[in-house]
Design goal:
Elements lengths: L1 E3 L2 E3 L23 H8 L5 E3 L6 E8 L2 E10 L13 E8 L4 E7 L9 H17 L43 E2 L5 E4 L9 E3 L2
Antiparallel strand pairs: 1-2, 3-4, 4-5, 5-6, 6-7, 8-9, 9-10
């Protein structure tokens, strides 16, 4: 029993030296390849090889996505030391002109605590539900690339009737002449944005 101020805790346990604990003082649990397979195989998961990944990965197809479980066990099946890694759950898809793989969605890590099975099954269910009804916008960027900036919407500026800026989509000025005598609409955000539209 532990007393802090005027509050007494009777369920607090002290972790042995060398073991880490988390907020609720649960000890990290050892999770072996056999434990992972016993949980995932009945769910339809199979072991896959992912280039450049040195841990056991299991996957299954879910509504056109690959639902992957990165186990935290090394490729030889040996579990990493307790508290040093977590089980990661991710959805992968393919898209774009080159049909390049992209990570569509990931879940928070599943810590290897005594409730890891229940926590992992909940995350699998959450990602499966997301895969069944993903957002309508389809990702087109390749893995590791920044998404392309959205193209400005080509609508006239409501108050002035001037064309929109071709770079930022904002408003433009009334027609002005440049040094050559050609008229243009300049972006209202100049000098931060240097977009211009010919006024011909």
């Amino acid at each position: 029993m532990t007393t802090t101020g005027n509050v007494t805790f009777s369920n607090v346990t002290q972790a042995p030296v060398g073991e880490r604990t988390i907020g609720d003082n649960s000890r990290f649990a050892p999770v072996s390849q056999a434990d992972i397979e016993a949980l995932l195989t009945p769910q339809g998961f199979v072991k896959i090889t992912v280039p450049g990944v040195n841990e056991l990965v299991y996957a299954k197809l879910v509504h056109g996505f690959s639902l992957r479980i990165y186990t935290g066990c090394n490729a030889d099946g040996v579990a990493r030391p307790r508290g040093q890694d977590a089980i990661r759950t991710q959805l992968w898809g393919r898209g774009g002109e080159d049909n390049v793989p992209f990570r569509a969605r990931g879940a928070k890590r599943t810590m290897r605590v005594p409730t890891w099975r229940k926590n992992l099954l909940r995350k699998i269910a959450d990602l499966t539900a997301w895969a069944k009804n993903p957002p309508t916008k389809k990702p087109t960027e390749k893995v590791g690339e920044k998404p392309a900036p959205a193209a400005p919407v080509a609508v006239a500026t409501p108050k002035t009737g001037n064309p929109p800026c071709p770079i930022c989509g904002g408003g433009t000025t009334a027609p002005k002449a440049n040094r050559n005598g050609n008229y243009f609409h300049g972006c209202l955000k100049f000098p931060k944005c240097r977009g211009a539209v010919n006024a011909s």
